[in-house]
């Protein structure tokens, strides 16, 4: 595995070297073992540490904090390459990066000193705890409480669908310290070995078998007040600030997984004959793969546009990220599903790997904000008063 320097401002040669190293990692460390991880529900801690050695534990974290310091336009290219090897592991690396970025952006010097070396190396992992059994898309309705007791806060509640639960070294937990609504929510850093912290049984999921998803249960968990991330009442804003990047990352993962499935389908139709001629010579097949390729390229350009908006701190960045996430995750699942169809009955078999990618990509239309919520974000922005930044076409 090749380790390369990753400066913030890169030449095209440096960018190619980085993507080449990531591609090598995906081809040698992820792809060959993806089927086994899926079948046996294996979470590859050693593989993730090797990802950390490559600089993938803090991709868009500041260099002065020990991160790689890349822009979002380069980050999405990295996640696309990772997902070609294994969408599930690529998606977990995205979640981990969200956590590290939040600590880097809002943490105190002491918090950075405590957590950044461990997290950036991926010797320790991070989990993001916002969703609850009764607060999914309406995350501001969360009920987990954090009550001040002297120099500590006491956290009580349950978090749902938490990736990495039971494996993480630190959990960013959003809890209510004030009145109902978004302004009453505060973020806390909860160590994985905190007393009173436990986890539900592993969820039996359609896909994403290679990463654990469980409830995080906080039963009177005490953390020092110094474990507050940001200021009191800032938690929901912190959570939302990470989602633009998370949505772009997961969109890129959808593109990468779907591109892998499309590549397999193209190879298959060249090899397979039906009714006396290769499938690749049938017009219906040509039309199908042309549409699949076109949809993925359109998705790729939308994701890059969203990434540029985040890099430039554009006023309509949230809308552009929502559009990219909605379009790319829908297109990614559709292309992977069509790749399965082009394989016929063989696509339904585990041996070919296509059905695994279809299962893994389906959840991308749900997490980091459902695609219905993405439509709400875009629609509300479009119906703001005339003259707002959101009404102007993206440049």
Give an overview of the whole structure.
This protein has 395 residues and is of the alpha+beta class. It has 3 domains: 12-125, Acyl-CoA dehydrogenase/oxidase, N-terminal domain (Butyryl-Coa Dehydrogenase, subunit A, domain 1); 127-235, Butyryl-CoA Dehydrogenase, subunit A, domain 2; 236-391, Up-down Bundle (Butyryl-CoA Dehydrogenase, subunit A, domain 3). 49% of the residues lie in helices and 14% in strands. The chain contains 11 helices and 10 strands. The strands form 3 sheets. A 4-stranded mixed β-sheet has the order 1-4-5-8. Helix 1 runs parallel beside helix 4, helix 5 (87-106) runs antiparallel to helix 7 (235-271) and helix 7 (235-271) packs antiparallel against helix 10 (354-362). The longest helix has 37 residues, at 235-271. Mean pLDDT is 94; it is low at 1-7 and 390-395.
Briefly note the structural class of the backbone: alpha+beta
Strand content: 5-15%
Spans of 5+ residues with little confidence (pLDDT < 50)?
Answer: 1-7, 390-395
Q: Span between N and C termini?
A: 38 Å
User: Counting H and I runs of at least 4 residues, what is the number of helices?
Assistant: 11
Which CATH top level class of the largest domain fits?
Mainly Alpha
Rounded mean pLDDT score: 94
Q: CATH superfamily of the largest domain, called what? A: Butyryl-CoA Dehydrogenase, subunit A, domain 3
Helix content: 40-55%
CATH topology of the largest domain: Butyryl-CoA Dehydrogenase, subunit A, domain 3
- Counted up, domains total 3
Succession of helices and strands: HHHHHHEEEEEEEEHEEHHHH
